[in-house]
Amino acid sequence: MSIRPLDDRLVVKRLPAETTTRSGIVIPDSSAEKPSQGEVIAVGEGALLENGKRRQLDLRVGDRVLFAKYSGTEIKIEGETLLVMREADVLAVIEEIQSEEKAA
User: Fold this and answer.
1) Does domain 9-103 have CATH number 2.30.33.40?
2) Contact 65, 38 (CB under 8 A)
3) What is the 3-state secondary structure (H, E, C) of 15-76?
4) How much is the pTM?
5) pLDDT tens digit sequence for 52-68
6) What average pLDDT score do residues 17-34 get?
7) Phi and psi for 10 in degrees, rounded to 5?
8) pLDDT above 60 (res 104)
9) Residue 2 — φ and ψ, nearest 5°?
10) Terminus-to-terminus CA distance in the chain, angstroms?
């Protein structure tokens, strides 16, 4: 089954929560917070403007994003929990630093 969000909405799959702190302390599942990072797995056609045209979304499938803790609506499809949210609910895109930039 596939899902196609409408307008300026997107479907995000949460990334797994961190289970260990940087210092090595293991966080139990009962204390772990919901992760606020995810991967975009589907995007809508864009926001419908007043003149009838569509504004394309800035996000693409595969983008790794940061969103607010209680953003979006959780849905379950084929046993997998996904989030449907508006593009405006995304706070930032997480980008990997290229290896050339790391060396400099």
Assistant:
1) yes
2) yes
3) CCCCCECCCCCECCCCCCCCCCEEEEEEECCCEECCCCCEECCCCCCCCEEEECCCCCEEEE
4) 0.73
5) 898 988 899 999 999 98
6) 61
7) -140, 160
8) no
9) -120, 160
10) 45
Give mean pLDDT, residues 89-94: 91
Determine phi and psi for 27, rounding to 5 degrees. -95, 120
Amino acid symbol at 96 = E
Q: Which helix (H) or strand (E) holds 86?
A: strand 80-86
Tell me the one-letter amino acid at 67: F
Rama region for 2: left / alpha / beta (φ>0; ψ in -120 to 50; rest): beta
CB 75 within 8 A of CB 81: yes
- Among 2, 30, 11, residue whose Cα is nearest residue 75: 11
Which pair of structure tokens corresponds to residue 98? 């290229």
- Nearest residue to 80 via CA among 27, 24, 28, 11: 11
Mean residue pLDDT across the chain: 81
Residue with tokens 């790391």: 102
